[in-house]
Automatic annotation (TrEMBL):
Stated name of the protein: phospholipase D
Record flagged with keyword Iron: no
Domain PLD phosphodiesterase: 204-231, 365-392
Family that this chain belongs to: Belongs to the phospholipase D family.
Enzymatic reactions: a 1,2-diacyl-sn-glycero-3-phosphocholine + H2O = a 1,2-diacyl-sn-glycero-3-phosphate + choline + H(+)
Gene3D superfamilies according to UniProt: Endonuclease Chain A
Signal peptide: 1-25
Ranges of biased composition (kind: Pro residues): 50-76
Amino acid sequence: MGRRRWAGGWLLVLALLLAGCDGGAAPFDPTPTFAPPSTRRPLPTLAPDAPTPLVSPSPLPPTIPPPTPEVQPTPLPSATRPPGGGPAPTLPGQGVELPRDIGFDGGWWAVLFSPGPSGNAANGQYIFDKLVGYIDAAQTSIHIAAFETNLTPVAAALARAHARGVDVRWITDDEHGIDADGEAGRGQFALLEEAGVPLRDDLRGALMHNKFIIFDGHIVWTGSMNLTTNDVYRNNNNVVVIESPEVAAIYEAEFAEMWGGRFGPRSPAQTGQDVLDRNGRPFVIRFAPEDEPLDALVQLAGLAEHSIRFMAFSFTHDELGAALRERAAAGVDVRGIFETFGSETIYSELTPLVCAGIDARQDGNAGMLHHKVIVIDETVVVTGSLNFSNNAADSNDENVLILADAGIAGLYLEEFERRWAEARPFLPAEADC
């Protein structure tokens, strides 16, 4: 199959979905189509190229309360939907209906959004408690590939898990993980090492930029959120949690490659990375650089017929920018939000897009808009750790998850509208077109 297998397989399925030729598939059934095996432990009911630019740490939040065993956060109360939010999308799973600015916590999956300074700090606490809850509930293994951390309670929870016999292992970036551990506010890797948790880093100039965790070989936590105070409470991020042994096996294979020292271009391209969710819709999983995921995103963008929405921490990839301009010229409604930091450099796609008549804005978050999200035709969602840049595509270790469902896409579109409402228009006059 090789590195160009995107021309077939699930890309064809996604193409059919985007083209409206999926045979009139029914909306996402809120009930799983099969029951998980009785031997599988259910999800606990508990309730984020270049690194993040160095900014002065915010005092937010004042404190992070230490976790307690068997965390059982109460579902947060209902919140008023944003103006113009429309009806709630049909969603899978028998889960917790959260305030719409948090996301949706299903019985076997979740999509969660960190609040940013304009949001409710309880959102970040919900995500934090959920993460610690998964750690405290783990029975056999916790495998982490995460760029950086400064969350001492998370490190403490992992040390507890290791002490009770759970196989806890962490792969991180050298410069921003292990080497940064002596900085003020850090020391979490030293805590883990003292507890006996095995640690490895990539020992190379490019980044180990993933943000994924695999619990017990069947739960995957991924998205754009670094395990840091800023990313949980201050920056705009998204987290996807999936209970699926098939999805977990794909991430475990990538984890094993990196644990064995195969980072970046030395990591072999995988096969069999396309699986069905419980409703028969495709999950497509790709890793950078070996699977060339940005090439796939260029192809997917070229399939758009109605709309493209994106939220980008870093967007400097010329081919993806050209694909968006081509679709806009063909009449597709393209809108996007850039993280302000770095968006006006000569490398950024902000000016070329605006000069092509595309409505693009700079984010209104005093912290960072850290999303790496594209939504195509209100149906297909692209998310993960991958910034839209050549470094991310060619050098860094990254992961991309592509989901084809209107319900999940609706959650991301709501997040887009929240960020759009606080973003600042970037006008052609400013772009010096």
